[in-house]
Amino acid sequence: MESFEDARLFAARGQVREALEALDALLGRNPRQVEALLLKASLRLGAREGEEALGLYQRAVEAAPESSEAWNGLARCRHALGLDAEALAAANRARDLLPLGENFRHGSSVALTLVWCLRELRRYREALEIATDSLERSPDAVLAQWASVVEEELAEAEKTEC
């Protein structure tokens, strides 16, 4: 009987088939195991199986409606599918949940998702504000890089308007 840690190790080693088999076994025993749903969804999204990933993320949100991680996963999946307005709504929900329990650990990840969604919606100022606020609380190299991208795009958009 495989554990979640086994599945996670398979995934980390790039053994996707083995990871999915282990996750299927876990979900067969407990279909609402949030960690397993999130990892399987992430693997499916990585394999460009967005619709299946979307269903798994929705199941994770249903199983753990107060999980910032689950809502953020749903937001990232929707973003990957080009559903940025829906992704933004899910990311905002993830942000609203950050003060609860251990959700604070996902602050930078949620901020990054918000930046991506707002950027796609060409809401550069809001994206930059979220990135700046998050970076003041917790340095994050990836978020800082995206903040620079958004800053450049905002400057370009302002030039175009003139």
Tag the structure with descriptive keywords:
162 residues; 0% strand; Serine Threonine Protein Phosphatase 5, Tetratricopeptide repeat; mainly alpha
How far apart lie the N and C ends?
64 Å
- The shape is elongated
Strand content: under 5%
Number of E-state strands = 0
Order of helices and strands: HHHHHHHHH
Mean pLDDT score: 95
SS content category: mainly alpha
CATH fold type of the domain at 71-161: Serine Threonine Protein Phosphatase 5, Tetratricopeptide repeat
Description:
The longest helix has 21 residues, at 141-161. This protein is elongated. Helix 7 packs parallel to helix 9. The protein is built from nine helices and no strands. The model has no long low-confidence stretch (mean pLDDT 95). The chain has a domain at 71-161: Serine Threonine Protein Phosphatase 5, Tetratricopeptide repeat (Alpha Horseshoe), CATH 1.25.40. The protein has 162 residues and is an all-alpha fold. The chain has helices spanning 4-12, 16-29, 34-46, 50-63, 68-80, 84-97, 107-120, 124-137, 141-161.
Short summary of the structure?
The chain is an all-alpha fold and 162 residues long. The chain has helices at residues 4-12, 16-29, 34-46, 50-63, 68-80, 84-97, 107-120, 124-137, 141-161. The chain is elongated and about 65 Å long.
How do the helices and strands line up, and which of them pair or pack?
Blueprint: H1 4-12, H2 16-29, H3 34-46, H4 50-63, H5 68-80, H6 84-97, H7 107-120, H8 124-137, H9 141-161
